[in-house]
Amino acid sequence: MSSDYDVIIIGAGAAGLMCAATAGYRGRKVLVIDHANKPGKKILMSGGGRCNFTNLNSTPANFLSDNPHYCISALKRYTPQDFLELVERHGVEHEEKAAGQLFCKDSAKDILNVLLTECEWAGAEIRLKTSVSGVQGIDTGYKLATSAGSLTCESLVIASGGLSIPTMGATGFGYDIARQFGLTLLPTRAGLVPFTLHPELKEQLAPLSGVSCPVDVSCRDQHFREPMLVTHRGLSGPSMLQISSYWHPGDELTVDLLPANRIHEDLLSLRKNKPQSTVGHYLGQHLPKRFAQAYNDMHGWTGPLQGYKNSDLEQVAEALGQWHIKPAGTEGYRTAEVTLGGVDTRQLSSKTMAVLERPNLYFIGEVVDVTGHLGGHNFQWAWASGVAAGNVA
Ligand code: FAD
């Protein structure tokens, strides 16, 4: 008995749509199922509504995984340049913001339209508002119990994403299916997520809500030199989002507030040349005024520099160059851009994303244990893993 479809893909997000178009162009009869009322909701909200759709400088070093070599093959075979060519073929206007980060000039809708058009041209069908209550392995492939009835397919691709932003339709569905078929899951946690602070520091920083300054933040041998943003809940901005993917509860962050300066030497020379100058004055020259004032007040630095001993200046330099912060936690999946962990990639083919011990079952995108840095890398993984599976499923 032949199957209803050659390929069923669960999840009409970035990875699922890319996979659907790729498989469809190979002549496969493809169905994409999603329980949401719209496809690609995360694409639409990404990059502040303008979708940072890839990063021209993406390398495997931009990804976190318990099995770091796994992502290399797929990323090599479908590159940022490949996706850029697709986007340009569809006439989408784009711009490079920070180095290598490509955004739509107009709207993230443009990227979703590229994918939906590709799916249409490739003959892939998309069924929304359809939930899947069960998946069963059968002789010819898989049988799905869905809210639209029973469906069979030869190949099943799980592209249901991670746990971040449950209000956008995120569920643990992919992990449940992985468990059902005996796969190991690595613990999941929120990544690219703002930090929350303990009450005392939160109160001290509250007046700075909205202030951003370039810092270098480090934790667990990783560091990022990018802006930090103080929010009414805690700390955010690119540097904090990046380091959050490496942070574990209880870890301390070390923040260099003046990464471009040699703080101790600056202060020594200021004391020598302008003895009446103050730490507050020095800070005001290098940090946003509100931040400088609040940080100065937090430490009670008063009086002219001539009154500071060498050891005092060393302490000031340390407080500025190595501000130790122990976050209370993170905002969690509610606001996280990604989910770390997931399906252990040691059980998947790095060329095809297929489960090694189970024929014709594939896991792609965020559901697997590959997570990119901020800056377009996560979509690049979605495209590359989607194409890898779409070429064989
Ligand atoms: P998703 O895009 O999450 O798609 C999964 C799909 O599966 C969804 O449509 C969901 O409805 C569906 N689904 C889930 N459970 C079920 C179920 N039980 N049954 C049926 N369907 C189901 N990355 C970048 O590279 N650049 C950015 O600019 C960027 N900005 C972001 C901004 C925000 C606010 C967020 C939250 C993320 C951002 N990301 C960005 C990360 C990026 O969106 C994800 O890495 C990417 O969407 C993952 O693609 P995916 O296809 O694996 O999963």
From TrEMBL:
Domain RsdA/BaiN/AoA(So)-like Rossmann fold-like: 6-391
The RsdA/BaiN/AoA(So)-like insert domain, residue ranges: 189-338
Enzyme nomenclature, EC number: 1.14.13.-
GO MF annotation, one: oxidoreductase activity
SUPFAM superfamilies in UniProt: FAD/NAD(P)-binding domain, HI0933 insert domain-like
Record keywords: FAD, Flavoprotein, Oxidoreductase
Cofactor dependency: FAD
Pfam families found in the cross-reference section: HI0933_like, HI0933_like_1st
NCBIfam families named among the record's database cross-references: aminoacetone oxidase family FAD-binding enzyme
Protein name: NAD(P)/FAD-dependent oxidoreductase
Lineage of producing organism: Bacteria, Pseudomonadati, Pseudomonadota, Gammaproteobacteria, Pseudomonadales
